[in-house]
Amino acid sequence: MTNMKRFFRHTGRALAALSELWHASQLYRWTLGASLALVVFSAALPAWRLLPGILEAKFIPLHYNIYFGIDRFGPWYGVFLPAAAGLAIFLLNVVILCVVFRSDRFLALLLAWTTLIVELILLVATIFIVSLNIIV
After folding, report:
1. How far apart are CA 32 and CA 78, in angstroms?
2. Residue 131 contacts by C-beta under 8 Å, 6 or more apart in sequence?
3. How many structural domains comprise the chain?
4. What is the 3-class SS of the chain, one letter each residue?
5. CA triplet 124, 96, 107: central angle to 5 degrees?
6. Domain that holds residue 94
7. Which UniProt keywords apply (predicted)?
8. What's the pTM?
């Protein structure tokens, strides 16, 4: 029973830290909300454009190189790897952001912006993977 109490106590502290972060500044709300929206869009785009047609394919192209053409093939769920990586990065950065926020506001702000930039890069990678599979 003590482990459950400890879990709920830590969960309550984490939610309180997240609430404090959320209400501290509109900039944190905007960057975290935009990052989450980019993660959702990174998962929704291949599901919308590719999923109906690629489920029966054994391997699909996942990477294009200007020198060699298509140089990486993988299973159909490989199109969701950037979205999965983006979700993992988002969750990890939110946890670190909640921990760092009280002690160093500049580092927290830098981490929030970095999360947004990384999510944007992963969305661009997803767009390229989807466009590669639409063309092929």
Report:
1. 25
2. none
3. 1
4. CHHHHHHHHHHHHHHHHHHHHHHHCHHHHHHHHHHHHHHHHHHHHHHHHCHHHHCCCCCEEEEEECCCEEEEEECHHHHHHHHHHHHHHHHHHHHHHHHHHCCCHHHHHHHHHHHHHHHHHHHHHHHHHHHHHHHC
5. 85
6. 2-135
7. Membrane, Transmembrane, Transmembrane helix
8. 0.79
The whole-angstrom separation of Cα 9 and Cα 30 is 28
Query: Per-residue pLDDT for the chain (136 aa), expressed as one digit of tens each?
Result: 566 566 556 566 767 777 777 777 788 889 989 999 999 999 998 888 777 767 677 777 777 777 877 777 878 778 888 999 999 999 999 888 888 887 888 888 899 999 999 999 999 999 988 888 776 5
Expressed in angstroms, the distance from the first to the final Cα of the chain is 56
